Amino acid sequence: MMLCYSLVVALAIATSVIAGQFDFDTTTQQFPIVALPPPPPPPIADTSGRLVHDAAHPWHAPEEGDMRGPCPGLNTLASHGWLPRDGVATPAQIITAVQEGFNMGYDLAAFVTYAGHIVDGNLLTNKLSIGQATNRTGPPPPPPAHAGGLSAHGAFEGDASITRGDAYLGDNDSFNATLFDEFVSVSEKYGGGAYDFAAAGALRMARIRDSIARNPYFRLLAPRYHTAYAESVFPIAFFIDGRRTGAERTRLDPAVARGFFESARMPPDFWRSSSPWGRPEVGIAVDALYRAHPISPGSNNGTVDSYTHDPTSPRLHQFCEMYTDYVNVTVRELYPNAKGVLLAALNKNLDYLYSALGRTSCPQVPPFV
Ligand code: HEM
Ligand SMILES: *[C@@H]1O[C@H](CO)[C@@H](O)[C@H](O)[C@H]1NC(C)=O
Ligand SMILES: *[C@@H]1O[C@H](CO)[C@@H](O)[C@H](O)[C@H]1NC(C)=O
Ligand SMILES: *[C@@H]1O[C@H](CO)[C@@H](O)[C@H](O)[C@H]1NC(C)=O
Ligand SMILES: *[C@@H]1O[C@H](CO)[C@@H](O)[C@H](O)[C@H]1NC(C)=O
Ligand SMILES: *[C@@H]1O[C@H](CO)[C@@H](O)[C@H](O)[C@H]1NC(C)=O
User: Fold this and answer.
1) One Pfam annotation, family name (predicted)?
2) Distance 347 CA to ligand 6 centre (A)
3) DSSP secondary structure, 54-74, as one string
4) Can you tell me which atom of ligand 6 is nearest the CA of 363?
5) Per the domain annotation, does 369 fall within a domain?
6) Which among 313, 335, 337, 365 is the best mutation to test ligand 6's pocket, defined by most ligand atoms within 8 Å of the CB?
7) Residue-wise pLDDT tens digits, 69-116
């Protein structure tokens, strides 16, 4: 069956805006090819704190077939209807939902969303599963690309997670109660019973040490190296009620944390953060975690306890290098020779990723050819 789609797509390219008319053939009506993905939505207008577990966003357990994965933030947004409850979403839906539901800063929201979508999403249908692969994101791209959803191990999902196991050790996807026990005990030991920055730093190091000791194929290289540290800050940034002030604003109750990590559930009457946490705010906290327990990017070599620093992998503060490495290595490995409309969609998403860097001096990696 051949169907034609006629779409008007607005392309924002540098300073000019070009409006064009496109016709594409595709194989199934259920999966219209998004002829060049639309640009990211603008930032939300009001970034103050507000009730987000409200009457319009009740928690429902996922139903059979709904996708949930390794990210407690996105799982929670789906289970409260800030994202489609089936866990399949467009980048625009994710960028808006993480701002609306948690007050993630726009810069970070856009960067992380495109970084995840490009490697784990379907670039032709513009859909991403927040869990495992599903045919609801459309026909998969040619291998080695997979559009396998955020649960796919490797490009984005990685080792030394807080509450999920390493892929090598088994289930890298679902909540692990044994690992959460460690979250609680480290919070008791370092945070006086709360997950605070001291506990976050100690737990980050402990999770890395555990992987070094038990996973012969442990890898902690960019961009996973960067997301591992950032995700240790996210519970403090986003899972604490925004009405808290002073020292209490950075002390997360483990029982509340468990609701997010295990059940994708906000506490009753939950308010999002009273101010956005974007790249600058998360970056300062990441620096503090790193300074307390510095660990360099590296990997084991096929045996446990062989962790070796990899000097070719960008460090935490090397944000431009991380971006370049992500595009030129991580993405390039998945799409070694994309052609035609797939190549166009890939380059468009890479443009949006670059735009999400904001006013930095990072040079843009040239488009793939
Ligand atoms: C902006 C789009 C986002 C994407 C694409 C994304 C994706 C992911 C992925 C793939 C992981 C798994 C990494 C791993 O542990 O191997 C992850 C982990 C995590 N995410 Fe997200 N995430 C996003 C936003 C958020 C938000 C808004 C929050 C908090 C509200 C959040 C909180 C976390 C936390 C705490 C972890 C660590 C889980 C653990 O280690 O047990 N994320 N995210
Ligand atoms: C997706 O897979 C399910 C289960 O195998 C099947 O019932 C459904 O028809 C498929 N949907 C599409 C759109 O291919
Ligand atoms: C990661 O976990 C998912 C879900 O359990 C599983 O399907 C996948 O095979 C795992 N990946 C690896 C590399 O073990
Ligand atoms: C949970 O994690 C622990 C510690 O890594 C591991 O021993 C256990 O097998 C995991 N449980 C499941 C159900 O994967
Ligand atoms: C891996 O590292 C260990 C310890 O550093 C070393 O003894 C071993 O020879 C290395 N193995 C390989 C395959 O490089
Ligand atoms: C990225 O790869 C492209 C194509 O191989 C190359 O032209 C470019 O110089 C690389 N950029 C960096 C910063 O390594």
Assistant:
1) Peroxidase_2
2) 14
3) STTS---PPPTT----S-HHH
4) 13
5) no
6) 365
7) 999 999 999 999 999 999 999 999 999 999 999 999 999 999 999 999
The CATH number of the domain holding residue 228 is 1.10.489.10
Q: Would you say the CB of residue 70 lies under 6 angstroms from ligand 4?
A: no
Closest atom of ligand 5 to 308 CA is 5
Ligand 2 centre and the CA of 30: distance in Å? 11
Domain range for residue 275? 2-355
Residue 285: φ, ψ to 5° = -70, -40
Q: Residue of the nearest CA to atom 12 in ligand 2?
A: 135
In the numeric block, which tokens belong to residue 161?
A: 């997670």
Nearest to 102 by CA among 88, 79, 82: 82
Distances (CA, A) of 77 to 89, 145, 232, 270: 11, 27, 19, 13
Residue 38 near residue 125, CB atoms below 8 Å: no
* Residue 34 within any structural domain of the chain: yes
Amino acid in position 309: H
Number of domains within the chain: 1
pLDDT for the residue 358:
83
pLDDT computed for residue 284 by the predictor: 97
Q: How far is the CA of 328 from the centre of ligand 6 (A)?
A: 6
Average pLDDT along the chain, 369 residues, taken 10 residues at a time: 24 24 39 83 98 98 98 98 98 98 98 98 98 96 97 94 96 95 98 98 98 98 97 98 98 98 98 97 98 97 98 96 96 96 97 90 94
Residue 77 included in any domain? yes
pLDDT in the model for residue 30: 64
Q: Which pLDDT value is given to residue 9? A: 23
- Is residue 37 in contact with ligand 4, taking CB distance under 6 Å? no
